[in-house]
Design brief:
Elements (H helix, E strand, L loop, with lengths): L15 H16 L2 H4 L2 H7 L9 H19 L4 E3 L9 E6 L8 H9 L12 E6 L24 E6 L8 H5 L5 E3 L5 E3 L9 H5 L6 E2 L14 E3 L11 E2 L5 H4 L6 H5 L5 E5 L6 H8 L1 E3 L11 E5 L2
Amino acid sequence: MSKKIRNNPLGIKLNRRNFIKGSAMGLAASALPLTKKADASFLDVFFQKHFREMSKQEIQEVLDRFEKTYSEEYGKKVSVKATPAIPGVLFGYGLDLSRCIGCRRCVYACVGENNQSRDPQIHWITVLRFKNGEKWVDLENSESYYNPAEVPEPDHFYMPVQCQQCENPPCVRACPTQATWKEPDGIVVVDYNWCIGCRYCMAACPYGARHFNWSKPNIPPDELNPETHYLGNRPRYNGVVEKCTFCIQRTRAGKYPACVEVCPVGARKFGNLLDPASEIRYCIENKRVFRLKEDLNTYPKFYYFFAT
């Protein structure tokens, strides 16, 4: 399909991608209601170019379109940014298990900051509870439902789990549309407009960190965080996958992730792995650190440690 096709009356050079895109556009247009067929914005969204292939002008046009759409839908001014990675920065995360009290404030701060669905509920952070001496490496069979009003409990410890922002992410390799990729600052992102909902990335992720929208996410307008990022916390669609992005809308603006900021005991650490003076580098170099499922060679940038 890469060569010119004979008997092409328009003289258009066709390749595999253009052929598939053109065929899909014809099918989509024919299936749309009459009112939708004349809606150019619908087709613009449906056949939007890959984010990494857009020019700066094209990106700005997309951002403007989504700002208008979200502002009309939620009845408030919504900002959609595409702040790029900061040169010389590779984000890393640390979590002190000896301090975590299992209060789950991080879970709900994440929900509010990142516009996760309230009904059905989607949480990017899961806090697991273990008894002292229990086989804590068995994440799949651990306990995540407990009463946070009673924590910390005697003879128990807690392990929050979220996207590990792998340096070698299996989810990226599994995606058939390249809707997910690793950014220069180490954040693994998802373009919701290119996600086809196949959930291959969910099957590939060994940490259970990706979540699928089985229905349209429900966010009350008065609870929507209007400060959003195209690759992060902007409102999602039905049938796409989402995940933690280290609060890309905050961290690329020089702020801490919401979960770090809200932790009442200072168990969460965050910073630049390339900066020898950063707090995360100090923790890695001076604490007993480990990473989840290191034998899989995913090289997470999420480090667990004990203060003593």
